[in-house]
Design brief:
- The chain is 44% helix and 13% strand.
- The protein is of the alpha/beta class and 446 residues long.
- The protein has two domains: 199 residues, Periplasmic binding protein-like II (D-Maltodextrin-Binding Protein, domain 2), CATH 3.40.190.10; 194 residues, 3-Layer(aba) Sandwich (D-Maltodextrin-Binding Protein, domain 2), CATH 3.40.190.
- Helix 2 links the parallel strand 1 and strand 2.
- Helix 2 runs antiparallel to helix 14 and helix 17 runs antiparallel to helix 18.
- It is globular and about 65 Å long.
Length: 446
């Protein structure tokens, strides 16, 4: 294991698209990418991975991976095997526990990182690019650009206007549930927030935890804050709040916390001692009625029949003046570290990963995400994937996720403990708001 661990590294879990990215643009996925790797298995393919042209061998590319869960780890193994067949290049994968990877990415990138690494679009990508901890890949984008929407290119672009990231897949956040449970209990998908609230005591009375919940790792609760903020206050306020431009003592923020306080009695108890995987198992075992999470929740539904029983709905409207057409839909992908030992090979790998073939191989084994390449084959998408594409394509605005839309130090050192404090004691909202705002002022002016 090559990642140098630093338990004091100030970076948290996930990262998002900074600014508006229309879902229609994100989900418009059909066109073609040419020359992303031949199929003859030779060891002298061009550094870009395409057949013909270059003379440099791809060689061995080291890759820092956060895909530590069984399903994505196995899926990537198949992708990297296909990369070797296509280019002759080998990917030497350095897998680290997902949360540990996120928390220690800062020290990792400043130390002796792998040639390439898995990461996230938007602000968090820009953060490391701006600090010189990533290699520009605008030359890769000259080849792969036609196969991506403008919104995805924007999400891959640093503050200097250059590209540093290759999107691989995205996944919407929504309320997931078991169809068989809802059919048995006679519950219908709520069309409004009032209908959702009316369901919660019925679910509790029937013996279920109405809302599955976990926050041991610190980041999942951010999704609850995000969706309540988006439904109450809309896209622009959310983006400005994450950017430090709005006050955390604003009454609008108090409304978010007070609404959450109203819902907390219906959350699964003991959240701070539970991982998201364990909460997902509660949904799988029919102990929880719903679970607000990203579509990757399906990774815990490994039985085909059980996975087919999984469904979701968009978090309903709270304010008719705001609507329900904005959602979190984070984009995951790949970057190249500063001064990689095998830059040509790393760029060949990222070019290959931008292809429909590479993304289709992954999704065949982990059908819990949506491909980003325009020419990706969606004909084999499950009903869940097709529904996810529809949800994203109908959204007016896309956010990435709280800790991807704000400064990493603010997300990890302020918001994770603040939200966990709220979960433990939701009765001092004004005090919590003041504490967050005071810390925000210190961080955002530094």
């Amino acid at each position: 294991m090559r990642i140098p661990f630093d338990t004091d590294a100030p970076v948290s879990r996930r990262t998002l698209l900074k600014g508006a990215a229309s879902t229609a643009a994100l989900a418009a996925l059909p066109a073609s990418l040419v020359g992303c790797g031949g199929d003859d298995g030779g060891s002298t393919q061009s550094a870009g991975g395409g057949g013909g042209g270059g003379k440099k061998a791809v060689g061995t590319v080291t890759l820092g991976s956060n895909a530590s869960d069984a399903v994505p780890k196995a899926s990537y193994e198949k992708v990297f095997a296909a990369f070797k067949t296509a280019t002759g290049g080998t990917v030497d994968v350095n897998t680290v526990d997902h949360n540990t990877f996120q928390e220690q990415i800062n020290s990792y990138l400043q130390g002796k990182p792998d040639d390439a690494f898995m990461w996230f679009a938007g602000y968090r990508m820009q953060f490391f690019a701006q600090r010189g901890l990533a290699t520009e890949i605008s030359d890769v984008w000259q080849k792969i650009g036609p196969n991506y929407s403008d919104a995805l290119k924007k999400a891959s672009t640093g503050l200097d206007g250059k590209q540093y990231f290759v999107p691989y897949y995205y996944y919407p956040w929504a309320l997931f549930y078991r169809k068989s449970v809802w059919e048995k209990e006679g519950w219908e998908v709520p069309q409004s927030f009032d209908e959702l609230k009316a369901l919660l005591p019925k679910m509790q009375k029937a013996g279920y935890s109405p809302l599955g919940f976990a926050d041991k790792d610190g980041w999942p609760a951010m999704g609850t804050f995000d969706i309540l903020n988006l439904r109450h206050n809309g896209y622009q306020f959310h983006v400005d709040l994450m950017a430090g431009k709005e006050s955390w003592q604003d009454p609008k923020v108090a409304t978010v916390f007070n609404t959450w306080k109203e819902l907390l009695p219906y959350h699964q108890e003991g959240a701070l001692g539970r991982t998201w995987q364990e909460a997902a198992q509660g949904l799988a075992s029919k102990k929880s009625a719903m679970y607000l999470l990203g579509m990757f929740v399906g990774q815990q539904f490994t039985d085909e029949k059980t996975h087919a029983d999984l469904d979701f709905f968009n978090f309903p409207e709270i304010d008719s003046n705001v609507g329900a057409d904005t959602l979190d839909a984070p984009i995951d992908g790949f970057m190249i570290s500063k001064s990689p030992k095998n830059e040509d090979g790393a760029k060949a790998l990222l070019e290959y990963l931008a292809s429909a073939k590479a993304q289709s191989i992954y999704l065949q084994n982990d059908p819990n995400n949506i491909a980003t390449a325009k020419d990706a084959d969606t004909s084999n998408y499950s009903a869940l994937q097709k529904k996810a594409v529809e949800l994203v394509s109908n959204a007016s605005n896309i956010t990435q996720f709280m800790d991807r839309d704000t400064r990493p130090d603010f997300a990890s050192t302020v918001m994770i403990p603040a939200l966990q404090d709220f979960i433990k004691n939701p009765n001092d909202v004004s005090g919590l708001q003041k504490k967050i705002e005071d810390q925000k002022k210190t961080i955002f002016t530094s």
